[in-house]
Amino acid sequence: KGIEKQTFKLMSQVIAEEAPQHKIGVLSGPNFAKEIAAKALSGSVIASPHDDLNQQAQSLMHSGSLRIYASNDILGVELAGALKNIYAIISGMAAALEVGNNTFGLLITRGLAEMSRFAVRLNANPATFMGLAGIGDLMVTCLSPLSRNYRVGYALGKGEVLEDVIQRLGQVAEGVNTLAQVKAKADELDVYMPLVTGIYNIIYQHSKIDE
Question: How many other CB atoms are there within 10 angstroms of residue 117's CB atom?
Fold first, then answer.
């Protein structure tokens, strides 16, 4: 769930270059590993242009507590999985600032609009963002302290320094790196992404949060 620096290649594209003889699919959705392991009722999306790969993945991973849906929009599913981490940081920051429920509704809805606008510009299917890999994953990661990116945003909202937060977390918070790549690509493509611009200014330009 990341984007390669400089090239803006998604992980499936990097793998395709390194292993061109293999069929590739991506798996994404509102899935915290701890809850999957505990057999909480969950759903995920396997996306590949190869229907046989999708069917095999569905057969292998389907269980009494996990349902796997299939998609041919590998680009949209993978972009959704990367982009939502940015908005999780924003939501964690909002939680630290003790905003109301109205604000979370605003952030998640407008975050979804930004994600889909950006992805469609890159030729993804907009319908993907109304499914588990889009709005489903966005809601889970924006509303749960289990999300690493949410925890980074929460700490920043409490006034902590980013480097200290990441070191204490001891895990990769993909949204911090993805943010820089997406901001540069959005500027290049002239895609309107005010939430991305705002959090970029806070993290990389050291703007004050209250501004």
Answer: 15
